[in-house]
Write a structure and sequence with these properties.
membrane; transmembrane helix; mainly alpha; TIM22; about 75% helix; protein transmembrane transporter activity; mitochondrion targeting sequence binding
């Protein structure tokens, strides 16, 4: 077969949307466990509930994220598709609600999980460009330390060569005055 001059000889394999599914499940689950534990620590009864809150929020988040990823894989869609969030919320809420208290709880939990999960995913999608902008600006600052500057009102000032030489001259003059003053006191 003759090769077409318009197509490159190497085929570019597109990145699969299923790449990174572990991160899309484990990172929110761990963060939810930490948030639940912190909430339990600041609640009135403190210690006994902290572990319970952490475990429950981690389980709920793990189920939701797993169902969302399963829906994404079944639909062959992108990870940022909000329909996956709705389907994942309905599925995980229905399952956990059924385990918790029957058919009525399953419906109630399905609606709550779909609403809260989709709202949370929508919020993270909307905030992602701002967070990336902040991350990029912090990375630029860390790469170029000269971009760090203190405000004018700061008592800490970075001196250039002339100002540093003038400061050293003033310090030397004050030192000489003190030394000369102590010598005069010793003589008298």
């Amino acid at each position: 077969m003759p090769s077409d001059p318009k197509t490159p000889s190497k085929q570019i394999i597109p990145k699969s949307p299923s790449d990174g599914w572990q991160q899309r499940i484990t990172i929110p689950t761990i963060l939810a466990g930490i948030a639940g534990g912190l909430f339990g620590l600041v609640s009135k009864s403190r210690r006994p509930l902290a572990v319970s809150y952490a475990a429950n929020l981690a389980i709920v988040t793990g189920c939701y994220c797993g169902a969302r990823e399963l829906a994404r894989d079944a639909r062959a869609s992108e990870p940022d598709d909000l329909i996956n969030s709705v389907i994942g919320g309905v599925a995980s809420g229905g399952l956990l609600g059924k385990l918790q208290g029957g058919q009525l709880s399953a419906i109630r939990y399905a609606v709550i999980f779909a609403t809260v999960g989709t709202a949370f995913d929508f919020t993270t999608l909307e905030l992602r460009p701002y967070l990336r902008n902040i991350q990029n600006s912090v990375q630029e600052m860390s790469l170029d330390p000269s971009s760090w500057s203190l405000p004018e009102w700061s008592p800490i000032q970075i001196l250039d060569e002339e100002a540093l030489a003038a400061k050293r001259a003033r310090e030397q003059q004050l030192y000489e005055q003190r030394r000369f003053g102590t010598m005069n006191k010793e003589k008298s």
